[in-house]
Amino acid sequence: SSQINRRLKVDVNMSTSRYAADRFQQTNRLTGGGPDRLGLIIEAFRANPMTTPETPHLEPNDLLQLEPGTGNVTNFIYNPVQQAQKVTNEEMMNFFLGSINAELMLVEGLNMNFRGGYNFQSQERISFIPTTTPVGSWYGGIGDHQFYDRRSFVFENFLNYKKTFGDNMNLDATLGYSLEQDRLQTKGQYG
After folding, report:
1. How far apart, in whole angstroms, are the C-alpha atoms of residue 135 and residue 88?
2. What local confidence, expressed as pLDDT, does residue 30 receive?
3. Nearest Cα to 54, choosing from 143, 137, 133, 135?
4. Which value, in Å, is the radius of gyration of the alpha carbons in the chain?
5. 84-93: per-residue pLDDT in tens?
6. For 31-45, how does the pLDDT look when each residue is reduced to its tens digit (9 = 90+)?
7. Cβ-contact 172, 161 below 8 angstroms
8. If you write DSSP's letter for every residue of 75-87 in order, what string do you get?
């Protein structure tokens, strides 16, 4: 809050943040649902400690190498090193929130008040499971790119007039308008 001069007072608030992550693809979100796979840490405990990105994925019972197109893809022991290095699961989020409040005394008793707020949110998600991974070889490779964008604002402007006449008469009048908009846009590709 800042009193600019005797007639003008302005308040401005802003907040912004950005979030970005590239993490292990843990759910079957890209394959249309189905059971969740175990997380990377659990898979690391199940895997051979000498695992490299080239080590094949194994079935849990007989430890045979995965053959695409047979069995249930969620039952295999995944190579956690390969999953962490070859699978892309990036997510980025941006946020901005701002507001302003300005009060201006035009003449004694007549004040103008301006209020405004703006909100921006965007999110982008990029996922890619190549054919060199069990899920990717099962489905022939999977890619997904989703984008979400939301912008909204509200602006209000008011004129207030207050005047006292004598001991028993008060006049208090307000005239104003408000403008608001909310826009949402989503885009996505899958293949």
Report:
1. 13
2. 46
3. 133
4. 29
5. 777 888 889 9
6. 444 444 555 666 666
7. yes
8. GSB--HHHHHHH-
d(CA 121, CA 147): 11
> What are the structure tokens assigned to 1, written together?
């809050």
Q: Rounded to the nearest 5°, which phi and psi values hold at 115?
A: -130, 140
Q: How many CB atoms lie within 10 A of CB 95?
A: 14
Q: How far apart are the C-alpha atoms of 129 and 145, rounded to whole Å?
A: 12
Per-residue b or e along 102-123, where b marks 16 or more CB atoms closer than 10 Å to that residue's CB: bbeeeeeeebbbebbbeeeebb
Q: Which residue has the tokens 């405990």?
A: 45
Tokens 């208090």, residue located: 172
Alpha-carbon separation of residue 80 from 76, 141, 172 (angstroms): 12, 18, 71
CA angle, 88 then 94 then 98, to 5°:
175
DSSP 45: H
The whole-angstrom separation of Cα 124 and Cα 184 is: 14
Lookup: tokens for 25: 């693809």
Contact 78, 37 (CB under 8 A): yes
Task: Please report, for residues 64, 66, 94, 104, 137, the alpha-carbon distance to residue 70 in angstroms, rounded to integers and kept in the order given.
Answer: 12, 8, 42, 74, 11
Q: Give per-residue pLDDT as tens, 122-154.
A: 999 888 888 877 667 777 888 889 999 999 999
- The kind and range of the H/E element at 168 are none
